[in-house]
């Protein structure tokens, strides 16, 4: 159900919906769906075990299910949702970006990043984005459609399979962090994103058994959806893509700010922090001569001080042909110092992936 005042997007007339998939369904719905196919309801748990615990979507591997039932169950509940167009890697193959082609030809991206102490995956929740932020490749491409819950989840399942099978250097591993910071505005695809979080964090075999504390959901500031998200009872981290502390500039950089102003967005974030007990992450792309002035750093520090917050400064990864570029190193250092002077914790993001079209949307745009 849409939230009053929330932005909504209509699927283009004539567009096909993604096929029904196990990951779209709750455990109860899976049992009902399996029963509707003339199979014993307990087969739903077997299918869930194969997909969510073993990452095995090939029916040939389902040896606990009668051979005569496998193809029917696979066709109806585990259809192929997406295929790999290509992988590109950097950082000695520990950062891998994947371009996916969905069932209808739509292109989306995900990125898997392996660090010494953790493995993070950045996933997409929409094909394109309707927020129209001018410095973002995805925003400039516009919105194609929302991803289904299963299309979101399958990015993670594929990544976990790759880690288990040793495709990423460093030996077998398990995902520790998931960030909804790929293509799209997650809270504009609210119902499916919430469903995906439940699939990712429900215990095996109902879901993947990941920790909610390892999940970060990013938003440009859809205030009604932020307030609704606080009511879900999650322990996920909320990341607010702020990019400017003043409404005059943010109206330009993040056009949705014309509906919900900086203080409204921050008030909704503080509410989420209070309810969830989690610190808010403020995402701030530093753009040369646009939002990196000392007075803006001071204003941001005054807005954030004394709150449960951390600022993640992001040196802009410029897109081809864009007038926007990263701040000068000395301006970046001054911005950090100004925030620290207000007692606001701040780090500068490790800019992985620049040599592989690392900015979200660049790889998909290059394929078109």
UniProtKB/TrEMBL annotation:
This is Probable dual-specificity RNA methyltransferase RlmN. The keyword Disulfide bond applies. It is an enzyme of class 2 (transferase). Reaction proceeds by a ping-pong mechanism involving intermediate methylation of a conserved cysteine residue. One of its GO terms (molecular function) is rRNA binding. The lineage of its organism: Bacteria, Bacillati, Actinomycetota, Actinomycetes, Kitasatosporales. [4Fe-4S] cluster binds at residues 129, 133, 136. Belongs to the radical SAM superfamily. RlmN family. It is found in: Cytoplasm. GO terms for cellular component: cytoplasm. It comes from the Bacteria. GO terms for biological process: rRNA base methylation; tRNA methylation. HAMAP family: RNA_methyltr_RlmN. Its cofactor is [4Fe-4S] cluster.
